[in-house]
């Protein structure tokens, strides 16, 4: 066993030595026979690899220094650029394509109280140009104006001749136009995704909704209000990727009532040949504006129409002397003061009240002593003036301020008007303001005051957002005693039965109201044949829910009215038509059985004709 072992080792040693000699002598013959590199060869290869990556310190200084210098130059260049940008910021002229695309804001849907879409976004594209990449600008202008004929060739050529890197060619094009522009194949012309605001109902609620600009930023109405509540910041910070990321904004508007109101106003303008008209429906228990229209109006899909000065929101932006509708404020003030009650009387004999050099005349004079309800039903200027004088100038001013009539009223609509208040308020001002002349207010704030008179005495600032009665009462201000409100509801109902509000007294709805006719001030003087008429009606007067308001600017007398153009003959007629048409839509039920004892306090006090109104 031992000899065999020695025999095995000896040939191996000999073979190894022989193999080495053969390999040295003829390596080309030995290589094909080798299956794996011998240990010596492996050591030689590894040494070569290490040598390749071995960096002798004495030979590396130059290379490391060169690389370090390169990095230093790069970082210094970047740092210098950042400092320059911070010290000398460039004005964004829209040259950056990404920034230009980001200027189009994404907006939430606007819906009515029933969820119907009033405003929404649609995806579209806009055409841009990179003037530096357009070689033949004349040809580009010719081709682009051929497929986009609404472009002005001169303006487009000027845009393409600038040194800017980015200019808009046309915003919000149609898919068909996009295909046609694409087929032109003009280098330097491209498309960017965009959003377009659309209003599917056209002119409906235009003055409420407002408009947006080409960058989808709200510039009027509720659209501007939405931006002011933080939407613009959300868009600028990139938190909004699509419209569904935003909750729809729900308005108090009822689209059905809105269409009906505008339709009846348009009829009134045409029928009475008026210069303009406006109207609204107000929920007096919540302050919600159910409908509001002002004619002439505009289509928010074409924002340029809104620039016409004749298309203002007359309910919120216009300020007017409201005529005899202000007598509701005067009577409420007198009753709430405690100095007068529903049975107080006023001497109007002679038909003229002289105050200094001023003479106050009656329009529907009775030439006798009349009760407080009769002051309202006969629209007595003298009776109203005597009430206001009895309260005094300070008390009168304080009451009107409390009712929100001497300060600008703020709602969600950014547009509002400051009332025109006498700079020096004397007794003659109190006399004329008592019957609706000498103080100009926005009809919306006058409606809010009448709403407080009818709803039990709570002044609620009108809102265009859907809300509840509980939420509204938290923000309301108590301005009248409940007893005063009942007395005024009784008086307003009496006016619909035997006074100037008969035209709007639609059967089964227990309507009450007041007319108002004011002469317009032209060049500082009252003009007798240029009238501004108002009608305010609430229903049902035993428990008011809605206030209906109509104003007409310069309506004309008709043969059917005997040539009269006062409020009862035009604004009153339109208001009656609105109530009759809209009441079933907004859930105002008819009262087939007259209300039982609607004014118990008035019956108890023995008020003028109080028992007559039971069951009427």
Automatic annotation (TrEMBL):
It is found in: Membrane. Keywords: Carboxypeptidase, Hydrolase, Membrane, Protease, Transmembrane, Transmembrane helix. SUPFAM superfamilies: beta-lactamase/transpeptidase-like, Penicillin binding protein dimerisation domain. Residues 103-214 form the Penicillin-binding protein dimerisation domain. Residues 1-11 have a biased composition (Basic and acidic residues). The keyword Metal-binding does not apply. Residues 1-39 are annotated as: Disordered. The chain crosses the membrane at residues 64-88. Residues 280-566 form the Penicillin-binding protein transpeptidase domain. This is Peptidoglycan D,D-transpeptidase FtsI family protein.
């Amino acid at each position: 066993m031992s000899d065999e072992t020695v025999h095995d080792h000896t040939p191996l040693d000999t073979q190894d030595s022989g193999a080495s000699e053969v390999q040295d002598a003829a390596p080309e013959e030995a290589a094909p026979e080798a299956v794996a590199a011998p240990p010596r060869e492996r050591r030689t290869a590894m040494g070569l690899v290490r040598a390749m990556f071995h960096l002798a310190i004495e030979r590396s200084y130059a290379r490391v220094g060169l690389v370090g210098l390169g990095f230093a130059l790069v970082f210094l260049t970047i740092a210098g650029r950042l400092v320059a940008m911070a010290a000398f910021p460039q004005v964004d002229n829209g040259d950056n394509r990404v920034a230009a695309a980001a200027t189009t804001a994404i907006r939430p849907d606007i819906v009515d109280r029933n969820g119907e879409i009033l405003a929404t976004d649609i995806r579209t594209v806009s055409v841009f140009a990179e003037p530096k990449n357009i070689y033949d600008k004349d040809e580009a202008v010719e081709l682009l104006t051929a497929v986009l004929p609404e472009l002005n060739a001169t303006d487009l050529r000027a845009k393409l001749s600038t040194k800017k890197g980015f200019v808009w060619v046309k915003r919000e094009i149609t898919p068909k136009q996009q295909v046609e522009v694409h087929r032109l194949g003009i280098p330097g012309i491209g498309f960017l995704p965009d959003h377009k605001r659309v209003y599917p109902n056209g002119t409906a609620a235009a003055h409420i909704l407002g408009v947006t600009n080409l960058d989808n930023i709200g510039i009027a109405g509720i659209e501007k209000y939405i931006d002011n509540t933080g939407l613009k910041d959300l868009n600028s910070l990139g938190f909004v990727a699509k419209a569904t990321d935003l909750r729809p904004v729900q308005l108090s508007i009822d689209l059905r009532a809105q269409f009906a109101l505008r339709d009846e106003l348009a009829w009134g303008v045409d029928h009475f040949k008026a210069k303009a008209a406006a109207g609204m429906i107000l929920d007096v228990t919540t302050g919600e504006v159910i409908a509001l229209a002002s004619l002439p109006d505009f289509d928010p899909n074409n924002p340029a129409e809104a620039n016409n000065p004749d298309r203002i929101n007359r309910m919120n932006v216009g300020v007017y002397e409201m005529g005899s509708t202000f007598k509701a404020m005067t009577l409420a003030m007198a009753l709430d003061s405690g100095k007068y009650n529903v049975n107080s009387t006023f001497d109007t004999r002679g038909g003229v009240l002289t105050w200094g050099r001023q003479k106050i005349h009656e329009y529907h004079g009775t030439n006798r002593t009349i009760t407080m309800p009769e002051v309202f039903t006969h629209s007595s200027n003298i009776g109203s003036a005597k009430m206001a004088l009895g309260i005094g100038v300070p008390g009168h001013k304080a009451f009107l301020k409390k009712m929100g009539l001497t300060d600008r009223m703020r709602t969600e609509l950014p547009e509002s008007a400051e009332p025109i208040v006498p700079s020096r308020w004397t007794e003659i001002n109190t006399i004329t303001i008592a019957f609706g002349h000498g103080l100009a207010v926005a009809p919306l704030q006058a409606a809010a005051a009448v709403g407080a008179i009818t709803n039990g005495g709570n002044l609620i600032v009108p809102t265009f957002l859907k809300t509840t009665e509980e939420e509204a009462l938290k923000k309301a201000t108590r301005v009248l005693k409940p007893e005063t409100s009942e007395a005024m509801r009784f008086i307003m109902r009496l006016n619909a039965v035997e006074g100037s509000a008969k035209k709007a007294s639609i059967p089964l709805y227990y309507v009450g109201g007041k007319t108002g006719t004011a002469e317009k001030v032209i060049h500082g003087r009252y003009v007798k044949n240029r009238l501004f008429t108002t009608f305010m009606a609430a229903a049902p007067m035993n428990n008011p829910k809605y206030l209906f308001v109509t104003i007409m600017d310069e309506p004309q007398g008709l043969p059917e009215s005997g040539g009269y153009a006062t409020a009862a003959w035009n604004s009153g007629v339109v208001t009656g038509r609105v109530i009759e048409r809209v009441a079933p839509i907004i859930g105002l039920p008819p009262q087939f059985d007259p209300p039982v004892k609607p004014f118990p306090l008035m019956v108890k006090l023995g008020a003028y004709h109080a028992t007559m109104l039971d069951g009427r």
